[in-house]
Design a protein that fits this description.
This protein has 442 residues and is of the alpha+beta class. The chain folds into 2 domains: 168 residues, Up-down Bundle (Four Helix Bundle (Hemerythrin (Met), subunit A)), CATH 1.20.120; 248 residues, paralog of FGE (formylglycine-generating enzyme), CATH 3.90.1580.10. It contains 11 helices and 14 strands. The chain has a 4-stranded mixed sheet with strand order 12-11-10-13. Strands 1-4-14 form a 3-stranded antiparallel sheet, with helices on one face. The longest helix is centred in the middle third of the chain and has 31 residues. The radius of gyration is 22 Å and the shape is globular. The chain starts with 5 loop residues before the first helix and ends with a strand.
Length: 442
């Protein structure tokens, strides 16, 4: 079974694949992502917004221990009671927590201890899922629900493992690679075409038929004015034209808060880009590479995406426009299961394992590859209410000073992504695989 099938199986309680196998598959994928890392890599914290790989591996384990085993297994003994403090993130109701900016200062517990912690919790969680005790049977539905949340939570951290370690390794002058092999070359892109979307009422948000985070609902009606959306993301070549035209020096293109960052932090190109003579390179998880000019631009902030859109005499779509434009389409694209952790756009070779592009005659529905910034502030849908308890802190309390991204990235698992998925980051965030799709009024 592919990783992309796992979560849907646990939701439907399939008789062909046990919940314990689904859980184990997701957990093992996290460790597979770390297989080529050295122990020294896993303790790095390069900025406050990022965390060490070791912390991600331990925190996702803490989640299952705290919200499943400690609640539903009366015989469970914690692996190490101190870990409850070290590896809590922001769940105030779950107890005190270690300082987020200082996670990289912890040399202990060691990576070996963290892997032992994961194994210990895995064994107890699988045992609980197989248990036939009266207590387990009584709480079976709730156990499965929280385990499903935990699986999706771990998949979010799988993405953060990749983006955080990339940022950390990029600080190293020797530009180390953690993956080997040649990256597929993107095909030359046609000129942007525009898909016209008529005005009218659309359905926005997730229904209740399958798993989704609480911030994706309730499903509701939204009225859209007519608009046009680009048939593909902005490419490196197109963004380079913005750079060479002095886009980072033109104050008129930038929001005030953005311009302060551009000037104070000397932004003049996307994160990881650099120039050597006449050639443009970028740091990747495969080491330094010539920029593939036909691939989607990545590692730009909302502020950069907004400035580029203004320079191109366009705008960013709202999250509602984006969701309406792709409604009903199959989720096909470039996700983490491909194990190609760099945006490559349209693949040159026709015999690649996963075809990244499916234009459907009009719109490049290449999900994954890069998250696409929208102009929508991250806020609650009408009727939204977080669940009670510590799990209710998962999304709602972050609905301030963030922007919504849609579409998934090369670091997102296909089984984790949905068309209603609402990723969110502050406007300055650049270290995620985030890019641009343009829109304009019709």
């Amino acid at each position: 079974m592919q990783d992309s099938d796992l979560v849907s199986e646990i939701e439907t309680s399939s008789n062909t694949v046990s919940p314990s196998k689904i859980y184990s598959g997701i957990r093992s994928f996290s460790e597979r992502l770390c297989a080529t890392l050295e122990k020294e890599d896993c303790v790095l914290q390069s900025m406050t917004d990022a965390s060490p790989v070791r912390w991600h591996l331990a925190h996702t384990t803490w989640f299952f221990e705290t919200f499943v085993l400690r609640i539903f297994d009366p015989e469970y003994t914690p692996f190490d009671p101190r870990f409850a403090f070290l590896f809590n993130s922001y769940y105030v109701q779950a107890g005190a927590r270690f300082s987020r900016p200082d996670r990289g200062l912890l040399s202990r517990p060691t990576m070996d201890e963290v892997y032992a912690y994961r194994q210990y919790v895995n064994e107890h969680l699988v045992s609980l899922l197989h248990s036939t005790s009266d207590s387990t049977r009584t709480h079976s539905k709730e156990i499965r629900r929280v385990v499903t949340v935990g699986i999706n939570h771990e998949q979010q951290h799988q993405e953060l493992i990749l983006t955080d370690i990339k940022h950390a390794l990029a600080q190293n002058p020797i530009q180390p690679a953690i993956f080997d092999g040649d990256l597929p070359v993107a095909k030359a892109c046609d000129e942007v075409a525009w898909l016209a979307i008529p005005e009218g009422l659309v359905d926005i948000g997730a229904d209740t038929a399958s798993f989704h985070f609480d911030n994706e609902g309730p499903r509701h009606k939204y009225y859209l004015e007519s608009f046009c959306i680009a048939d593909r993301p902005v490419t490196n070549q197109e963004f380079l034209a913005f750079v060479e035209a002095g886009g980072y020096k033109n104050q008129l293109l930038w929001l005030d808060k953005a311009w302060s960052l551009v000037t104070s932090q000397d932004w003049n190109r996307p994160l990881y880009w650099y120039q050597d003579g006449e050639e443009w390179f970028e740091y990747t998880l495969y080491g330094p590479r010539l920029i593939d000019m036909n691939a989607p631009v990545a590692h730009v902030s909302f502020y950069e995406a907004d400035a580029y859109a203004r320079w191109a005499e366009c705008r960013l779509p709202t999250e509602f426009e984006w969701e309406a434009a792709v409604a009903g389409q199959p989720v096909i694209g470039h996700f983490s299961e491909d194990f190609i952790f760099h945006p490559i756009g349209i693949r040159e070779a026709e015999n690649q394992q996963t075809e990244v592009i499916d234009r459907n005659g009009e719109l490049d529905l290449c999900f994954g590859t890069v998250w696409e910034w929208t102009k929508s502030q991250y806020s609650a849908y009408p009727g939204y209410s977080p669940e009670s308890g510590a799990l209710g802190e998962y999304n709602g309390k972050f609905m301030c000073d963030q922007f919504v991204l849609k579409g998934g990235s090369v670091a997102t698992s296909a089984s984790h992504f949905r068309l209603t998925y609402r990723n969110f980051f502050p406007g300055h965030a650049r270290w995620q695989f985030a890019g641009i799709r343009l829109a304009k009024d019709s």
